[in-house]
Design a protein that fits this description.
5 helices; 2 domains; mainly alpha; elongated
């Protein structure tokens, strides 16, 4: 009788351990699904971060200063990236590799402008306020777009 009781308790413990493990697996799957959905939902913002960082690197290594606009453009772009990153963190989008925007033949600064326009539209139409980072990111997107445009205009001359 005692051995049956011990076996019953052991079986119950094994069942509970399996249930806890299964619950952890389900919770992990739920988190992964939510992260994947967040990544897909805010892809424009992730592309903007990637491309603007690339444009900053391009400008920092350029042989000229784009008519004096390089420094302002770099500062605005870096501030914009930081706000976009904060918005993405607030929306629980994990940091990771983002596929580059699909037009590598386009000048890096022009690509940055285009993806910032897309990011701006995404922010303007999003129901999410991104923990208060949306308004600041929108203002910085405008400033970065303006500075990039002025730098590109100078480069045309």
């Amino acid at each position: 009788m005692k051995s049956k009781a011990v076996m019953a308790v052991a079986a119950g413990c094994a069942f509970l351990a399996g249930s806890v493990g299964m619950a952890a697996d389900m919770r992990k799957a739920g988190i992964e699904k939510a992260e994947k959905q967040a990544v897909e939902e805010h892809l424009q913002l992730q592309h903007a971060v990637f491309e603007v960082e690339h444009a900053v690197s391009f400008m920092e290594h350029a042989s000229h200063d784009f008519g004096g606009h390089r420094e302002s453009a770099v500062v605005m772009c870096k501030a914009t990236v930081e706000q976009l990153r904060e918005a993405l963190r607030w929306a629980h989008v994990p940091e990771g590799k983002v596929p580059p925007w699909e037009h590598p033949e386009v000048h890096p600064m022009r690509r940055a402008m285009l993806v910032l326009e897309e990011a701006k539209q995404h922010l303007e139409h999003a129901e999410n306020h991104f923990g208060g980072h949306r308004e600041c990111a929108l203002l910085l997107c405008d400033g970065a777009i303006t500075q990039l445009r002025e730098a590109l205009e100078f480069e045309k001359r």
